[in-house]
Amino acid sequence: MKKFPINSDQEVAVLVKSKEELFKELENFIEENGYEGKKDALIQVLHKAQELFGYLPADVLEYISDKLDVPLSKVYGVVTFYNFFSTKPKGKHQIKVCLGTACYVKGADRIFERFLEELKVNPDEPTSDGMFSVHGVRCLGACSMAPVVMVDEDDFYGRVTPDMVPQIISKYKREG
Ligand code: FES
To answer: How do residues 24-81 score in pLDDT, each as one tens digit?
Structure first.
């Protein structure tokens, strides 16, 4: 199991703060750092916005474009270039199923489908309770353990079978 920094603040922020408050926080961040009208602060501001809102909705991107005086097309260009940024909401727990070649030949597609079935959700969209989203991803660098699933940023599961899928889901349901 690999350990990465846990990144739960953003979900907490989304749950307890209104959009208005989040915009206010973003405004404070821009002003306190003197980023207003600064085109080269775009990446830092996008990072902050995603941390606050959990993703980058259109109105947030328009606001940033306006505040930093960067054309909206350029803002979208940067957001789509970096995988880190997302314009769609994600679940509190993000399930990443590796669909790289080594995992695929060992049945990763059946695992991916099973997650979607169990959670009654489409790829890359959050479940109705916002708890999960399921994403197909490229090689996670653990091919010897194929097929591989990663949940959030720190939980790796190797040699996953479709029958393990309900168990994996219930672990996170219990944790909340
Ligand atoms: S192809 Fe899945 S971990 Fe490499």
So the answer is: 999 999 999 999 999 999 999 999 999 898 889 999 999 999 999 999 999 999 999 9
Pocket test for ligand 1, best of 98, 109, 137, 149 (most atoms within 8 A of CB): 98
149 CB within 6 A, ligand 1 = no
Cα(42)–Cα(52) distance, rounded to whole angstroms? 15
Closest Cα partner for 37 from 69, 73, 78? Answer: 69
Q: Is the CB of 111 under 6 A from ligand 1?
A: no
For 74-127, how does the pLDDT look when each residue is reduced to its tens digit (9 = 90+)? 999 999 998 789 888 889 899 999 999 999 999 999 999 999 999 999 998 899
**Domain layout of the chain by residue ranges:** 9-81, 93-175
The position carrying tokens 């996008």 is 46
Helices vs strands, H then E, count in the chain: 8, 4
Fold of 93-175: Glutaredoxin (3.40.30)
Task: Determine the Cα–Cα distance for residues 27 and 30; give it in Å rounded to an integer.
Answer: 5
Ligand 1 contacts CB of residue 165 (under 6 A): no
Q: Are 31 and 37 in contact (CB under 8 A)?
A: no
Is residue 143 lining ligand 1, measured as CB closer than 6 Å? yes
Q: Are 77 and 108 in contact (CB under 8 A)?
A: no
